Amino acid sequence: MVLALKISMKHLTYIVLFFSMVCSAQIDPVKQDSTEVHYMIIEGDSIPVTSIDLDEVLVLPNLNFKDREARIRYLVLKRKTLKVYPYAKLAAERLKQLQNRLDNLERKRDKKRYAKIIQNYIEDEFSAELKKLTKTEGQILVKLIHRQTGKTTFDLIRELRSGWRAFWFNNTASLFNISLKREFNPIEVQEDYLIEDILQRAFQNEILKRQEPAFDIDFYACVNKWSEAKS
After folding, report:
1. What torsion do the CA atoms of 130, 135, 136, 139 make, to the nearest 10 degrees?
2. Separation CA 145–CA 88 (nearest Å)
3. Which of 60, 61, 118, 153 could be disulfide-bonded to 180 (CB atoms 3.0-4.6 Å)?
4. How far apart are CA 216 and CA 214, in angstroms?
5. Of 94, 58, 104, which is closest to residue 197 (Cα–Cα)?
6. How does pLDDT run across 201-225, given as a tens digit for each residue?
7. C-beta neighbour count of 98 within 10 angstroms
8. Sign of the alpha-carbon torsion through 78, 83, 89, 91
9. What is the DSSP letter of 107?
10. Residue 224 and residue 231: Cα distance in Å, rounded?
């Protein structure tokens, strides 16, 4: 069973770090003084912009716990979420570049060879850290991969490898209460709501770098539902 868990976590390593190896250009934001005039360049013409779009800021509720056990549970979940979120964020950032690279390869043989090269590099150089994840951290990672990519880990494996391999790894992971088909659903699952709360606070406190989810999440609806449930 220990071997099965290592296989399962190894494949999570493959999914996340496979995306990290795809090269992509980065655009650094240009800082401007608030007194400067902003311009938008359209087909060679400079057009002054008199307004600036601001990111939405959520007003987060105060943290209230019904007892000490609930507080400890939240703090443990917070530690695990902060640990694995960067891997899920990395997966989302690289997914599009990865798909583009594979789409540009016409022959199936070339695609397979490219995937194998990346897989070997990952296993040799980068897998050790992700193998240290516990089963609960692994399950949180599965949920966050869905949050950031809009696809379950099972679907990603199936698309990148094969349906049989995805089925087999999912069954192996299920032995340790890790479902690769698990989705992130904070309106229906309380733990997912707590994870979303942890993320929003970490974004505002600049502990984590914000990345929008792949689908809409009505955070206030989640707050209202779970506040009523707690009452």
Report:
1. 80
2. 5
3. 153
4. 7
5. 58
6. 999 999 999 999 999 999 999 999 9
7. 21
8. negative
9. S
10. 11
